Amino acid sequence: MSIWRVLLSIILPPLAVLDKGCGSIVIVFLLTLCGWVPGIIAALVILNNPKS
């Protein structure tokens, strides 16, 4: 995970997981709508997942 991905996930979480699939984008988008911090946490967890 690069520093640019981390910064992008803090600024715009749904754009950080753009290449991880539609489901990830929807989940992060909905969590970002609920609150900024849950969206950031979800984006960082998805980006840090070694299986994807």
From TrEMBL:
Protein name: YqaE/Pmp3 family membrane protein
Annotated localization: Membrane
Cross-referenced InterPro entries: PMP3
Similarity comment: family membership: Belongs to the UPF0057 (PMP3) family.
Entry keyword set: Membrane, Transmembrane, Transmembrane helix
Transmembrane intervals: 28-47
Assigned GO CC terms: membrane
